[in-house]
Amino acid sequence: MIxxxxxxxxxxxxxxxxxxxxxxxxxxxxxVPGWMRKAVTAAVVLxxxxxxxxxxxxVFDESATxxxxxxxxxxxxxxxxxxxVILAVTGAVVVLxxxxxxxRDSYGEYYSLLAAAxxxxxxxxxxxxxxxxxxxxxxFSLCLYILVALDTERAAxxxxxxxxxxxxxxxxxxxxxxxxxxxGATGEIGFAEIASAEPTDDPFLLxxxxxxxAGLAFKVSAAPFHMWTPDVxxxxxxxxxxxxxxxxxxxxxxxFLRVLVTAFPSEADIWTIAVAVIASIxxxxxxxAALAQRDVKRLLAYSSISHAGFMLMAIxxxxxxGGEALLYYLVPxxxxxxxxxxxVAARERELGRPVTLxxxxxxxxxxxxxxxxxxxxxxxxxGFPLTGGMFGKxxxxxxxxxAGDWWLVLIxxxxxxxxxxxxxxxxxxxxxxxxxxxRLAPAGGSPPRDLAxxxxxxxxxxxxxxxxxxxxxxxxxxxxxxxxLPF
Amino acid sequence: xxxxxxxxxxxxxxxNLASLAILYLLLAAEFLTAAQVLVYAGAVMVMFLFVxxxxxxxxxxxxAGGPPLLRTAAVVAAAALLVEVVVVLGLAWGxxxxxxxxxxxxxGSPAEIGALFLTDHLLAFEITSxxxxxxxxxxxxxxTTPEKEDD
Amino acid sequence: xxxxxxxxxxxxxxxxxxxxPLPRETTAGLAFLVALMEVGLWIAAAAxxxxxxxxxxxxTSREWVESLGISYSVGxxxxxxxxxxxAVIVSAAAIGYAVWIGRxxxxxYHALMLLLTGAIVATFAxxxxxxxxxxxxxxxIPLYVLVGVWGGARRQAATLTFVVYTMxxxxxxxxxxxxxxxxxxxxxxxxxxxxxxxxxxxxFAIAFAIKAPLFPFHGWLPLAYREAPVEVAAVLSAVxxxxxxxxxxxxxxxxxxxxxxxxxxxxxxxAGAGLVYGSLLAFRAPDLRGVxxxxxxxxxxxxxxxxxxxxxxxxxxxxxxxxxHGLVSASMFLLVGMVxxxxxxxxxxxxxxxxxxxxxxxxxxxxxxxIALAVPGSATFAGEFLxxxxxxDQGWGYSxxxxxxxxxxxxxxxxxxxxxxxxxxxxxxxxxxxxLRPAELALxxxxxxxxLVLSAWPALVSQSSFPGNDAxxxxxxxxx
Amino acid sequence: MVAGAWICLxxxxxxxxxxxxxGQRISRRTAGWISTLSTFVAFGGALVAFFGLWxxxxxxxxHVSTAYTWLAAGxxxxxxxxxxxxxxxxxxLVVSGVGGLIVxxxxxxxxxxxxxxxxxxxxxxxxxxxxxxxxxGNFLLLLVGWGLVGLASYLLIGFWHHRPEAVAAAxxxxxxxxxxxxxxxxxCVLLIWETGTLEFAGVFEDVGSLSSTTVNLVALGLLGxxxxxxxxxxxQTWLPDAMEGPTPVSALIHAxxxxxxxxxxxxxxxxxxxxxxxxxxxxxxxxxxxxxVAGAIALVQWDIKRVIAYSTMSQIGYMFLAAGIGAYGxxxxxxxxxxxFKALLFMSAGLVIHHLDGEQDIRRMGGLKEVMPRTHVxxxxxxxxxxxxxxxxxxxxxxxxxxxxxAAGGALGYTLYVAALIGALFTGAYAFRLYYTVFRGSQSxxxxxxxxxxxxxxxxxxxVPVWILTVLSTIGGLVVIPGVWHPLTEWIGExxxxxxxxxxxxxxxxxxxxxxxxxxxxxxxxxxxxAGRQLVTNPAIWRVLEHKLYFDELYDALFFRPAVALxxxxxxxxxxxxxxxxxxxxxxxxxxxxxxxxxxQSGLLRxxxxxxxxxxxxxxxxxxxxx
Amino acid sequence: MDGxxxxxxxxxxxxxxxxxxxxxxxxxxxxxxLLSLEIMLNASNLTLIAFARxxxxxxxxxxxxxxxxxxxxxxxxxxxxxxxxxxxxxxxxVDQASALRG
Lengths: 487, 151, 480, 627, 102
Hints:
The structure holds 5 protein chains of 5 kinds. Chain A is an all-alpha fold. Chain A is 76% helix and 1% strand. Chain A contains 19 helices and 2 strands. In chain A, helix 5 (130-148) runs antiparallel to helix 10 (238-263), helix 8 packs antiparallel against helix 10 and helix 13 (320-351) packs antiparallel against helix 16 (388-402). Chain B is an all-alpha fold. The radius of gyration of chain B is 21 Å and the shape is extended. In chain B, helix 1 runs antiparallel to helix 2 (30-55). By secondary structure, chain C is mostly helical. Chain C has helices spanning 2-19, 24-48, 78-101, 106-125, 129-138, 140-150, 155-184, 198-211, 221-227, 230-255, 257-284, 288-307, 312-343, 359-372, 379-391, 396-421, 438-456, 459-462, 471-476, and strands spanning 57-65, 70-76. Chain C has 19 helices and 2 strands. Classes of the chains: A mainly alpha, B mainly alpha, C mainly alpha, D mainly alpha, E mainly alpha. Chains in contact: A-B, A-C, A-D, A-E, B-D, B-E, C-D, D-E. Chains A and E meet through helix 5, helix 6 and helix 9 of A and helix 1, helix 2 and helix 3 of E.
């Protein structure tokens, strides 16, 4: 008889909470009558995310010293917990954002899949070997494929789904092949073991590492692996886009950091450069392409690519400070992007058509609350003071500078300068258009009151601005989290 | 790979997979061989054929097409991938690929794999099940799209 | 504490104004009240300030980010206190003007104006490099919208050029800030030592050169000054530009002695060029704002000459001139606004003859103009003379350039005065156009009076700007 | 007595402020009285100071009093300080005295102008500035006064701001003076760096120790200021245009006081000039040139005030000459007498103009002797004093100067001597040409219809000052009688000791020559007048003189147009294309690139796959290759 | 052991991977693209198993098994998508799906 290994349920608790939420929601879609289905499932999933956040907090508190569970298949450390908190909170906010999203009746499935995806990510960030890594990745990716394509009545949604599925499949195949090679080179799949395994510059190992970097860069949507991003972000339901832009990036980046630092320390000299290059390509590409966009979701997609560039900068520093910088950056970033997409979603529902810059005209005056929120997010992404975005950039830059990549800092500065043009352009449309342009907007007639979305926006703004004034606490936490990696 | 009709393509794939199964067998992975045959030749392919049948002749799209540049680029890229792996192999050939480890007969037997799945790779196992569940849900949600003419 | 209050009061005021759903007039009035309270606070601060020992006073410091050595640390030296004084007075006048003119969307407008005030004060007060950067940037946020929403016809081009250009500069500064802070291990201006890295210095220098602006970095100036709401333009040219000077005085020179010295030649030449260039363009600018805008560019060149004279005369002169020019250019801009308000245009060709029957306008314009052209005996004259004397040590040529600037200033200022006041009324001047109303006088006169006081006693500023009344020493010691 | 000096300085300022602040609340007449009285108070203060000094022991006749530190930077300090010595006290008397009379006079002259208050405020401001100039205890304060009188003159020349000529003239005057101020300021800068102070005493002590170039430059700078202020060649062109201002203004600023400030500066800064004789002689030469040129031009002018203006220039030329050769006493002496008689001339001219409703062209006057006899007397006295006919004031002072030139000797001395004498001839000629055309002969019909009897020659407020000045112009020169006594020159000598002292013989021979030449001029003018022809008959010369030797045209072509052209060129070729457009181009360029980049995003799924595949290949190659 | 060297298996795997990639990059029918993806995954599987054998370590096989499941799931979703597209009368050609671009 096989003795079943002891499972550390606390470490798994966030995942479990979300899974059960997802399961309940799924159940509810079947048993609960249609008129209250949406409410119930949403409530359940919201509760799930909140519990997950709380539990992750507890885990963070409990696991000061990182440990590896279940024969090195998952890690229980503060890095994972930190990321899980961000992910769970993001998920909760997204639930709020999607409350008034119009869709064919598959609400139950939507929420349950959202929870499932959340669970996948929450597990993913704690993956400690290549198998769990791959499986976790596929886990939330599959959920996202479905979510993206969920608005089956919109051709765009389906197209986005197909593209995401195919390109995503391609990417994960690459990742898988890479893992296979690494496995072949070392005979190990656990990160720590890979690091300690003998062959350092075995060609298999290197090729595998390259492919793994590629696969993860794909999920981070860093150039040149980003090309799916704009299409998918544009086509997907706005709430899903919000979730992807914030959560997927967070999960993927954290894992990126974990894999590279834990599993391939002896190849650091190569992958730091590689990551730095990828980062700079993303910065240049994302910002330049964003200049040409009219569709706001697309614009934000490109901006998210450039942000990926910034955060990869931090990873390429390969230092504790770099880790801190990345983790800090994630906080305001996810808040800002979720918030921004939330505003877009609201406008979308109000106008009933995709949101272009033109259709933002005058929003700032018609809906002061949304306007100011969007303003905050744009300035934050541009790295203006009074938002966490500024400190994020500062830390990333200083990390890169300490690592000696002053050229990277300069590229970052230039990219930021370019990015201003389109971020401010959004603000310009919000406030400074008048007369003819305004006719695109519905004259008067306030939109359906949407408290949930309002609350979500409020939360996002609070985090964005709060992370500016409360730098130190966040930074301390981030430092602890980063400390759980063997720098 | 240049069959235009998905139906034949699918059948060809079955053949492909079957031969893979043989290879697995040679690699002393009996259980996997079985799984391969069942999962692929069975489930997956059946799904495929269903869909193909459902979609009927509408499905087949012509071979390649699109910008020629793209085509050449594709070929080059694929070739490059292949070549690289081969080169890597060549680099690594010398050292340890010759002498595979000696393994017991029970290597790759269902029992051992099952044991592993229930001990070391418990999580993997669970996740796999979750993934499958998700897939099922997804298939249903997407599959049951009502016909829509408008928009 | 007082310093923090000075910074927070306007910001708090901004929030209140923005949030409370008050009627137009009340909102505007409230904003103006806050601005006046700010002036009052400054007076209180000046009263507490011991000018004889010019060391850092009214300081507060609180850790912000230990790991990087970033702290919220503020305080005043003599010169920064004076600059702040000019700033609060000017912005009070500007807000008052906005109230009087009745800008629409008052809640947003006044909130932004107050925010701007707070940011400016914070800039002058900041004793931490990052805090400086933050407030330096924060000024842009309100300015962007103020110009872009309430500006003239081409406001959008103006505002985008302005912000992107200045932001580009200050991002270079951010890079430098990072480099300096990381190498120093602290961002505190008080604790950090000096650096001899030319590149880091260049980052700062370019940012300041764009902000000032110095020739040839003034590409944003003509459009911004023309299109901005006139009172915003006033704040822009009077105060915001001075933050660059503060930057040079507090960071550029003390923290980078060698680089500043090595590059002083270039900067001096650019400054001199800017002085002449601006004056020449002002001399033929077709409209009021053009003249004032280019003249203030010339003035910034002059002040920079003073700063990079590296000696007591030049530095004290620069501070004195900054304060004086701040007040005078603000009054000029407001007067321009009042004239434009009456005539509907600033084209010199279509103005004229406004002196007849409008004694108040005539007198105020004349006085402001005379101070603007630095008639001997005025505070501006004192400043220019000190600079002229100070920069002589760097090369007699610069003194000549300053002298040339004085003559050119006379030419363009007289041109604009006559164009407004003299000869026969222009096509745009209606007989009905009124003299200055009491409200308008109340806005301009305080600044004029302050200028007259300074004219009667320029030493008040020039003697009390730097620790131990020894500017060069203080700078070379890095204010230790 | 120092208190007196302070009162003298501050009273007019108080007047000016009072009038400005009172604004509409006081009647115009009150404003006039405030201004006048404040000036006379200043005169009182000056008297106190003067006699205080007079009574004091000769060794104790230099007092410096500092109110507070006006400007300071580091260890450089400049106080608001006044220096009271024989020179400044004399100047104070002249300025406040003559000034008071003229302000008083202008109460009548300006009566009915709707901006009288502004006028009197400006007048008081001017008197204050002038007093600040003469009392200043250091160069910077002197420069301040220097600039302020320029300001006041700008304001007053442009007083009738609806007249384009007036405004243009005002601007011209100010800009030209600004040039002077600039060179003056530069001189001060040099002094700061070389001597570390700007106080007269301190500077003069160190002058000896300075390098010759430094001294030269400083002296040149000061001289530049002096020339600009005193309208000497080559910065003389503003003065004639300045006649656009009200006549009393011309009398006060452009005859009696401000324009002579240059002379005061030369005398005040004599140690510096003495340290560099070349520059000092340059001053003398310029003075001589000016007195000739101006005298010649005066021969052909038609505007009564312009004639007098040119005569002013030429008289100041005499003073420069004197100061240039070191005859400080005579320079100041002539400054004083000239203040008397030139003010007198202007004021009586003002009476005429006032009488003829603002007409200034002498061709439309004539035969006014009958209609305005008293004015005629006053004017005649003024003319005689100007030409230097004994015993009138001008005679003593001017001949003193010419004699000093003789005494100075040397090539320079003699040339100056000759020039001065020729100048005397010119003086006689243009002075009497003016006199005859205005007062003698038959009335022009214009004069006839305007000069109706009855409304007298003007209000008392105008006449009384004229009388006083007439008296002064008659006897004012008696304070220096060669061979008998010269208290004034000695008095001045205590501050600025003369370098030359003409002997009595030189004096008398000069006097005879000068007087004779003056009379010759008189007769020439008379003959020409009776013959009804001009003094200058050669049309070519006439044209040249009428165009003031084309100085205006020259400067216009030399400075103004180039400046304008340059500014326009800069705007067209640098500002707009380079500075402004470059930004737009950069911006649009970047956006275009962005468009290109975005176009790569073809939307074709397969491209994405290809891109990824390629990227993977590259990564693998790199990774494998690096190791 | 019986059978060829591990290397040959790997070469086969590499070729399969390449072929699959080629399929994804060249074919326009989403169905066949899915098939190609399957082939790529299988290539990885083969690699895994080969190494497992060569290391004498079952982890690889377990991994491969998990991958199979995942692959199946992917197919299921992919097919669902395709069906949905077909229902919406969308042309089943990935080149036609390029409304989202720029």
